[in-house]
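Bug report (template v2)

What were you trying to do?
Predict the complex of my protein with succinic acid.

What happened?
Run completed; filing so the output is reviewed.

Input:
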Amino acid sequence: MSHSKLQSMNPATGEVIWAEAITPVAALDGILLTAKSAQRAWAATERNDRIAVAQRFAELALAEKDAFARLIANETGKPFWETQTEVATVAAKVGISIKAQTERAGQSSHDEGSFTRTLTHRPHGVLAVLGPYNFPAHLPNGHIVPALLAGNVIVFKPSEKTPATAAFMADLWARAGLPDGMFQLVFGYGDIGAALAGHDGIDGLLFTGSSTTGLKLARQFGETPWKMLALEMGGNNPLVIWEPDLAQMEAIAALVVQSSFLSSGQRCTCARRIIVQDAHFDAVTEAVAALTHRLIIDAPFADPQPFMGPVIDNAAADHLQAGNAALLSAGGKAVIEQQRLMDDKPFLTPSIVDMRGAAEAADSELFGPIAQFYSASQFDEAIARANATRFGLSASLVGGDSALFDRFAAEVKAGIINWNRPTNGASSAAPFGGIGLSGNHRPSAFYAADYCAYPVAGVQSEGVTETIAVGLKP
Ligand code: NAD
Ligand code: SIN
């Protein structure tokens, strides 16, 4: 790989699908100066004009749906059916963000008689966005749309693994009428991300990625608490199966497979740890294994359509193979063995590991198709196992009644807590974020409006009418 060029590879074929010069760190000064002067003009536009540009962006995304989804599929290896849903989510984000901004970061004034109480929200200014590769359009878009609506401008550094999708999005914004300088791209690896994050010219950073990187950013921002830092990070998510309806075992297996293996396990909300009531461990594991054996793992446009594709690249596949081997070395037993389907390509089969009796596994996120199965004899023990993590993104209970779910919801530590639903597939119309190592209490999705603007409260009156009623000498 050339040091000056960033290349994007199709994980399913190994082909280079896109190449562009890496942005030199020295170019950041100019990029951020441009952003700063563009921001003044953008913040001065009417909100309705900003909304109109965002709506044109959504229309163009839908008009280009096929090309857009094909590009994401080619760049990530995700099935085409899945990337089509990603594009639809990108377009739908605009309407949701307008509503969220109105509800959560709008303007109001209340007449209190002798004065008026006002609330407005102001943009931070220049916001850097750092994105992950698993949803290269949807997740950065979840920061970009609300940030632009609020009057910020964007400098976006996409994942080095998915820059072509970012370039496609930049083109859509330009065609939607977003003026020059309001959405700029920076291409490269973590070093340019770190330089952008540390640059004086940004007023905040909106990040979606791993907890490892997020922690580095939190340290970097420790000296600049006045800058906005929103961190959406990883998870080590539990799914508890308790008092399951045995007549529904196929549906339960489908829910577990969807939670653990959708997008080849490359969703931050995927269930990594399946905790099963011990009396039902064998039945559940057998049903999940039987369904897993039937999953089609293939390239994005294969016929029949695959359930899942490769993971993002060979380095990720190597890492996941090492992580899986560590579970087995710790005493885990392979219920379904992980396989690398091609030596030179990152196609991995889902792995199911029975962790009963194994040494405690590291509390780290294995961002791929690996499900660890545990058992518990008491519900308290299942909750303790679910909470035995520094992360806290999503959790699900499968089975039980509403009283059991109430207990689960009260005791489990996570930002998303579901009942008889998968851990993943989060809605853009709800807040999306986690606790512990999963975030810094700046949830995204519907609550992204909150971190894209700061509130300014005031009281105003036409004239000065102040009197001092007590504490005066006669
Ligand atoms: P990553 O942390 O490796 O990279 C994310 C971005 O940060 C990339 O653009 C990368 O180049 C950049 N980066 C890397 N090191 C940096 C540094 N030192 N300083 C500044 N920028 C740096 O994440 P990834 O592997 O691309 O994505 C997968 C991860 O994202 C998983 O951990 C997953 O759980 C997480 N994720 C979280 C959410 C969420 O909303 N909570 C959603 C999707 C993915
Ligand atoms: C993700 O953002 O990685 C997953 C979103 C989801 O499916 O919950």
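What did the reviewer find?
Residues 134-135, 139, 267-269, 424-426 surround succinic acid (ligand 2) (CB under 6 Å). The longest strand covers residues 116-123.
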